[in-house]
């Protein structure tokens, strides 16, 4: 009986121990499962974080590309502008060189190369700036017609005269020497001839910054000595081929308009003489238009050799 009781007790102990071991194994499995789940969550979180970072990097890259795009576009525009500039420079280089002229013995102008337009005349204005010189310069500038203004010293020896000369010069017109006081050079001593020419050149240079290169003697009267002076000054002598506004028959607008265009003296290379006068100023538009209608262009003094 005692033996059986011990057996029962031993059996119960074994069963209790087995149950205890089974509980510990279940607890360990639950703990392991929890650890595995936690590790899986951590991996998932890390994977999600990595995907989020990659998405953010992609977004940043896209934004960076968008930010860089204007620079690329600007670069293309700059390249396009550079190409346009190069094309324009090439077009300028391909333009024909201007033609040049030389002064002939009768003061007409003759082409010296094939580029010079044969059907052309030269416009010159004497005795400026008196009363209408600036207005005539402005009118010619509007008409895009070059000219030489031959000035006298007694018109520019005060502040107002100097201002008018400067204004004509700033409009781009050539300034010529017509002596200080407009004397007949054959009637005065050689010393006076020299001072009449050189003193005016000095005055013109002081006002405009440029020394005149063309000389026109009053009344068209040159002397051997005046030729020596202008040669020493590096100037070129120039009279005219025709002019009418000093003739009493043409000292009014309509008569002057007609004769300057219809005269038989008009020809290629003609050197046209006009003066700083009210009726000449009033006739200027019609005279220029009439010459253009006859197919004439206008010689730029810069293109006279």
Note down, in words, how this protein is organized.
The protein is of the alpha/beta class and 305 residues long. The protein folds into two domains: 1-95; 101-303, Alpha-Beta Barrel (TIM Barrel). 55% of the residues lie in helices and 12% in strands. It has helices at residues 2-94, 133-142, 159-170, 190-208, 224-232, 253-262, 278-293; strands at 101-103, 109-111, 120-128, 148-151, 174-177, 214-215, 236-237, 242-243, 271-275, 297-298. Strands 3, 4, 5, 8, 9 and 10 form a six-stranded parallel beta sheet that branches. It has a two-stranded antiparallel sheet with strand order 1-2. A two-stranded parallel ribbon has the order 6-7. The longest helix has 93 residues, at 2-94. The N and C termini lie far apart (156 Å).
How can the largest sheet be summarized?
6 strands, parallel
What is the annotated CATH architecture of the largest domain? Alpha-Beta Barrel
Strand content: 5-15%
Estimate the helix proportion, in percent. Answer: 55-70%
From the alpha carbons, calculate the radius of gyration and give it in angstroms: 50 Å
Overall CATH class of the largest domain: Alpha Beta
Task: Identify low-pLDDT runs.
Answer: 1-71
Question: If you consult CATH, what is the topology of the largest domain?
Answer: TIM Barrel
Number of DSSP strand runs? 10
> Structural class of the secondary structure composition?
alpha/beta
């Amino acid at each position: 009986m005692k033996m059986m009781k011990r057996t029962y007790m031993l059996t119960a102990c074994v069963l209790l121990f087995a149950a205890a071991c089974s509980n510990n194994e279940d607890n360990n499995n639950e703990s392991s499962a929890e650890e595995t789940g936690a590790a899986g969550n951590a991996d998932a979180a890390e994977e999600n974080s990595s995907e989020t970072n990659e998405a953010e990097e992609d977004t940043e890259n896209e934004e960076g590309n968008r930010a860089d795009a204007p620079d690329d576009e600007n670069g293309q525009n700059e390249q396009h502008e550079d190409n346009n500039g190069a094309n324009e420079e090439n077009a300028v280089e391909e333009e024909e060189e201007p033609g040049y002229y030389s002064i002939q013995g009768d003061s007409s102008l003759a082409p010296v190369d094939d580029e010079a337009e044969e059907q052309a005349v030269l416009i010159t204005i004497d005795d400026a700036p008196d009363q209408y010189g600036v207005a005539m310069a402005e009118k010619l500038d509007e008409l895009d017609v070059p000219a030489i203004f031959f000035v006298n010293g007694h018109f520019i020896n005060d502040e107002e005269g100097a201002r008018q000369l400067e204004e004509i010069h700033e409009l781009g017109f050539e300034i010529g020497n017509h002596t200080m006081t407009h004397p007949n050079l054959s009637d005065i001593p050689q010393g006076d001839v020299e001072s009449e020419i050189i003193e005016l050149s000095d005055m013109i240079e002081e006002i405009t910054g440029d020394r005149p290169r063309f000389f026109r003697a009053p009344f068209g009267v040159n002397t051997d000595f005046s030729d020596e002076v202008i040669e020493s000054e590096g100037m070129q002598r120039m009279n005219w081929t025709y002019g009418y506004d000093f003739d009493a028959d043409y000292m009014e607008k309509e008569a002057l308009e007609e004769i300057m265009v219809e005269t038989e003296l008009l020809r290629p290379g003609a050197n046209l003489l006009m003066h700083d006068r009210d009726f000449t100023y009033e006739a200027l538009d019609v005279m220029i238009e009439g010459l253009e209608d006859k197919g004439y262009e206008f010689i730029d003094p810069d293109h006279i050799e």
